[in-house]
Amino acid sequence: MSNSKNITPFVPELLQRLVEIISNPGVQAAVSENAAIALGRLGLHNSEILAPQLPNFAEDFLSAMEHVEFLEEKATAFKGFTLVVGQNPQAMEKALPQFFVAIARYRDINLKSPIKQELHDHFQKAIGIYRQLIPQFNDFVNQMQPQDQQALRQYYSA
C-alpha cells in the first residue's frame, strides 16, 4: 500500500459510507463483512483520523467481523482496527467486552508468521493499554466466558 497516504483526503467520506453499510441490518452479511474489512484496513495508515469516530463504529465493526474467515484480510483489518483503538482507547467503553471476546476467539493458524506475530503484538499492546486504564482489570476479564478467559491468559497473559 505504497500510496496509502494518497487516500487520506477521502478517509472521512469513506468512513461515513463504510459505517452506513456495517450499521445497516438490511445489508447482506457478505457486503457488511467486506465493508468492515475495508474499514479496518483503512485504520492501518489513518488511525488518527478514524479514532475520534470509534464509538460510532466499534460495535458494528466487531459484529460484522465475527463470521469472517481467519485469513490475511481479517488479520489486517483487525490490525488496523487495533491501531485505531490505540489512538482512542476510552472510546471502546461500550464495545470493550466484545473486543476482548474477539481477541480471545481469534484463531489465525493458517497465517504466515510475520502477519500472525504483528497481530498478536497489536492485541497484546491493546490488552496492556486496558490493563493500565481499568483499575479492576482482572475482575473485568473474570466476567468473560471461561474459555475466553483461558485463551486471553494463555496467549496474552491477561
From TrEMBL:
InterPro entries per the UniProt record, alphabetical: ARM-like, ARM-type_fold
Record-given protein name: Importin subunit beta-2
Source taxon at top rank: Eukaryota
Organism lineage string: Eukaryota, Fungi, Dikarya, Ascomycota, Pezizomycotina
